[in-house]
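QA checklist item 7 of 12: single-chain prediction sanity check.
[x] sequence parsed
[x] length recorded as 282
[x] structure emitted
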Amino acid sequence: MTPSEIPTALQGHLHHLQILSPEPEALARFYGRCLGMTVCAIDGRWLCEGPQRNLIIAPGEAGQLDFAAYAVANSAVLLALEDRLRAAAAAVQPFSTPLLEAGSISFYDPDGHRFVFGLPKIGSSVASAALPARLQHVVLASTNADRMLDFYKDVVGFRLSDRVVDSLGAMRTCFLRTDSEHHSLAIFQADENRLDHHCYESADWNSIRDWGDHFAAMRLPVEWGPGRHGPGNNLFVFVHDPDGNWIEISAELEVVKPDRPIGAWPHEERTLNSWGRGVLRS
């Protein structure tokens, strides 16, 4: 039986993020211009909504993830997740966010990041003439990536797609999925616990070109890429927002079959970018 055939297996996708900024309105206006999102104030925060991409920006320290919210496939998935968390003695709390239905739950991972799971509100995605790119994955830097992998795989129920290992066999990066796409969460071994980047999946090579032209028109330089990642095999470009957060536009991310073996990649620049320069986190 495949994961998609098991009603209570973790099934879902990254739905929205809440990130912090010392100038939340200015950062929200940036996302409005550069990612084609509508922007409005809500409860002392700024809600940015676009076609299949949503962000909430709240006051706080730059570069910090306040929470990551995943939309699950159905209520049975949510109940099974809550049971697994409680069985592992994780502190599960009810949570309210304007983009998920009532009854959502939250918990903290071993690094102190808050994750939220719930049912998406029907019709919450905003139609727009902006370039297509849906919020697809979030990446965390961790001082103990092995511990984080164990938690997300064995407790939360993510499935491991690929690992990056160094010459001694120590894990440097892991890529985890909640559906058939290669990853919706990745974790890098690093010297601090923090948000690494968030990624928006577009259609194909031509869409990468179109996003590059769009950023050029915004006078926003591409900081890394275009290139192709090894794990996931996706095309990419990266830019920075005004707070220094990495934003990735990706295309053609690998679709994974349930019986695909877990991959192992060497910790080297070519793994992160088969076309050239890589950005190693450690």
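[x] summary fact logged: The chain is about 20% helix and 40% strand.
[ ] second reviewer sign-off
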